[in-house]
Design brief:
This protein is an all-alpha fold. The protein has five helices and no strands. It has helices spanning 3-6, 8-24, 29-36, 40-50, 55-91. The longest helix is centred in the C-terminal third of the chain and has 37 residues, at 55-91.
Length: 98
């Protein structure tokens, strides 16, 4: 199965880190890409993001990225609620607190 066709979640950090470790051990990029069905661009993207990490570090990075994504959505949602409340206050002719 080609890795790019699987999507990131199905590939798993274990496989990505394993591929990068093979490269660090001396396997050529072109050979690794062919063997795992990934493009060189995908390989180098992984290398820039996860190069030199072990699996636990990569998992921690991914968890932090997921948490950051969740928090950004929460801030966006709260900002929309804030704007909706301000619009309601203006519509009813009330004054906004300073």
């Amino acid at each position: 199965m080609h890795l790019e066709a699987c999507g990131f979640e199905l590939i798993g950090l274990l496989q990505i880190v394993g591929i990068l470790k093979q490269h660090e051990a001396g396997l050529k990029t072109a050979d690794l890409c062919r063997e795992h069905g990934i493009s060189a661009a995908t390989f180098y993207g992984w290398k820039s993001k996860y190069g030199g990490m072990d699996v636990s570090e990569a998992q921690r990075l991914k968890a932090m990225e997921d948490e950051n994504r969740r928090l950004k959505l929460l801030v966006a949602e709260l900002s929309l609620h804030d704007e909706a409340l301000k619009a309601m206050i203006r519509k009813n002719g009330w004054s906004l607190p300073i």
